[in-house]
Every structure is written in structure tokens, then in C-alpha cells.
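Still learning. Any example?
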Amino acid sequence: MALNLESVGKTWGPYEFTYSERDLIIYALGVGFTKQNLEYVYEGAKDFKAFPTYGVILPSNAGAEAFLSTQANFAMVVHGEQGLQIHNPLPKGGTVQTTTTLEGVYDKGSGALIVMRFDTREKGGAPVCTNWVSAFVRGSGGFGGPAQPKKDVPPIPPKNPDFILDAQTDVNQAALYRMSGDRNPLHIDPAIAKMVGFQEPILHGLCTYGVVCRCFVQEVLKGDSGKVKSYSARFSSPVIPGEKLQIKVQKESPPPSPPRRCEKIDFQPSPR
């Protein structure tokens, strides 16, 4: 089926999403926080707060109409990239509103790339965060559509990065992370995983996304998650629950003035 491009540039919403401290705790446990991190897993902690990457959950019910308008085959979709920009600290609970904009449908030859932007704010209040989601539709390219605009992407860290961090995932990580809303059976059902070409269930891309950010905050930012203002990733290969991720971190050269945000990270499963 040919893709429908007529909705490019259109905005849907707002859609409402309500969450609580309990949801923040489940998410934090799902990306690897433990009882040693009470500020994320115990609502009674004096400094209890949302971890920044919970922002990817806020628009989880807001993309269906925009995606369906393209008439893409959902069975052929893989999550290509995720970008998150934090405007204000995430509330510890309540209702937020998200609008969805279909920014583009691009011809990648072997497939099509659908890019959606999600703008989330407190209900009737301040902006919270913006998400960009790129979904790659396998086998839908070659339709003569526009090419994706080039982006200014930082280079991959060299062979001798400033930091190399290890983030061990748990064999039950996907089973816990799915409680944050992504119930795709690909991440829990061995039969479904084999049906779509994997030897076993794979970890959610956004779980890997959160695990890496958690490790980076703990090891590089010394636990100060308030310093996370934006974070982007490209999902190039699957991760199996229980695998160890190797995170390479390269600092940018310090500019004269004013200081810039500095770190570029790259992550991949360590060899088994």
C-alpha cells in the first residue's frame, strides 16, 4: 500500500495523559534503579523526582492518529531514532497534554522514515518536554518522496574515548519495563519474537535508552539528573535482556565562552 503524504505538517491533539508517583517508580525500576536510589524509587524520599527519560512515556497515547494517517503497515515498522528535549523538570504526577505533529515522511530507498514531534505541557500550564520519534517502515521506500534533511550529528566517539562505562541489563528487564506501557509481545513472548526473525525476545529500545541515560547520569554527572536537557539516540541493533551495554563517552572540546553542553555518547551490546 502506498503511503499517504497528505497529512505531513498536520497537528493532532491535545491528548491527555495522567500518571502518578507509582508510575515514576515502576519506570525507574524498569531502567535499572534500585533501593540505593531512593530519590527515584521511594515516594517518601525528600528529594523524590521523575528521572528525565520518563519524558518519553508522556506522549505514549498521542501518536496513533498521526501514524495511521500515513497508511503505513505497522507490522513493518521499527523504532529508528528517539530525541528528547526537557523544557522544565517533569512533574511528580498529574495530567499533561500532548500535541502531535507529523513533521515528515521521507524516502529512504529500502523503506520510508516517518518523523513525528510530540510537544507536552502541564495541563493548562508550562511546557514540559518535546519528543521526536522516527519510525522506519521497511519495504515502503522508492515512492519518490523527499529525502530526509541532513542533520548535524556529532561524531561517534573514537577508539580512545574519555570514558567507557558498562551497563549490565537484567534478564527480566523487559518483563518489568513493559509495565510502563509498551506491551508489545515481541519483548516477552518467545514465539512472537521468532515469528518476526529474532532468536528470543528483545529489550525495548526505550528501555535501553533509559538504561544508558541512567548509567551516564550516575557515572559522569555524579547523579545530577537535572543537568540532562536533551538526549537523542539511534537504534541500530537489538539488545537481549541480560546483555551488557558498553557506553563510550567523548567530551567536546571546551569552547571559549559560554560553555556548551558537552557529552556525546554511543552505546552498543558488549560481545558475549
The two ends are 40 Å apart (CA to CA). The mean pLDDT is 90. The chain has two domains: 11-138, 163-269. Residues 11-138 form a domain with the Thiol Ester Dehydrase; Chain A fold (CATH 3.10.129.10).
